[in-house]
Amino acid sequence: MSDDEFRGLRRAADYQFGGSGGTALFAGADALDVTHTSSGRPRQIHTADGRIATYGDDGRFRLGLAGGSRLLDAFDGPRHRVVVGDESEPFIREGRNAFAKFVQSADSELRPGDEALVVHEDGYLLAVGRAELPGSGMDDFETGMAVKVRQGAED
């Protein structure tokens, strides 16, 4: 990966996840394996831990579990987090969606379409996915999908 490509990916991650998102996701740039589309655009970013993220056509990252874990370690709560309890843990861990009924708290800055970290109340990562509801209202809703889970911890 060229220095220009690396800087561009970090800049996009900083914009999407906040100030130090690029640093958190792409620490250890030498160990990153980037696959490209046939046109040469970056597509998948992997490391020995697994998939960090997929870089979409829209210029946004779709987190993998390894990327979610890096963001979880880098940011203090509640940033990018949706917290659930024991009742839904086994289902979300398997990769099933997180429903609003089971959300205990969420980052009030989350908007529908943002990448979200689904975390157990004890603080460990259960899944990564896309927020379907605003974070400020997730724990207020009694029905509906809060996070469309892309990858669970046991997927």
UniProtKB/TrEMBL annotation:
CDD domains the record matches: PUA_archaeosine_TGT
InterPro entries: PUA, PUA-like_sf, PUA_sf, TGT_C2, TGT_C2_sf
Domain (PUA): residue spans on this chain: 80-154
Highest taxon of the lineage: Archaea
SMART domains: PUA
Any Pfam family hit: TGT_C2
Gene Ontology MF terms: RNA binding
Protein name, entry field: RNA binding protein
Organism of this sequence: Haloarcula vallismortis ATCC 29715
